[in-house]
Specification:
Layout: E1 8-10, E2 18-25, H1 27-33, E3 41-52, E4 55-69, E5 76-92, E6 96-98, E7 101-105, E8 110-112, H2 114-124, H3 138-152, H4 161-174
Parallel strand pairs: 5-7
Antiparallel strand pairs: 1-8, 2-3, 3-4, 4-5, 6-7
């Protein structure tokens, strides 16, 4: 099991005005963070911390891939992800978040970057994620096609409303 402790950065203990931290985010990370959108992946994360006056500027970047379900056939697929984000951290009386600014307790002086990295990854996943043509589950594609043909040919069989909803999704994804 992965400890999220290693994603905590001791801001008060920085040895230089700018330091870079690199993390490998794997399946253990995604399970430990307990997010519902991504459970598996292989992502490299970089966090560059720069002290500016009393504040700390974090420049974060992620690059790699995660496993998500295909919108069309529902089989797992590898989805490349890449993104950057900036975060300003201030020392304060208690923890608080507002937009891209976070206040951390000045007595503790650390920031846990794990959830911020996870959110960056989730936001880097495209809204539409579908296998490359011909890579979807053939059984599911055949079932979708059969029900599409039965419906469009005016067949006598009543169409299960769940298949109708899937047909709408298929039409949207193919546009």
């Amino acid at each position: 099991m992965c400890s999220l402790e290693k994603y905590r950065i001791d801001l008060l203990g920085l040895k230089a005005d700018t330091e870079t931290f690199e993390f490998h985010l794997d399946d253990d990370f995604f399970k430990a963070v307990e997010g519902r959108d991504v459970q598996h992946g292989d992502v490299k994360a970089t966090v560059r911390v720069t002290k500016v006056g009393n504040d700390f500027k974090l420049a974060m970047g992620v690059q790699g891939s995660v496993i998500v379900p295909c919108d069309l056939c529902l089989e797992d697929m590898e989805q490349p992800v890449e993104g950057t984000n900036n975060l300003t951290v201030k020392l304060g009386v208690e923890y608080a978040e507002e937009d891209d600014t976070v206040a951390v307790d000045e007595r503790e002086g650390f920031i846990d970057t794990s959830w911020f990295l996870y959110e960056m990854i989730v936001l880097a996943i495209p809204i539409k994620h579908v296998h490359e043509p011909g890579k979807c589950n053939p059984a599911m594609m055949k079932a979708l096609e059969e029900h599409s043909v039965a419906r469009s040919s005016g067949g006598e069989q009543p169409v299960d409303p769940r298949w109708s909803e899937l047909e709408k999704l298929k039409t949207i994804l193919n546009d």
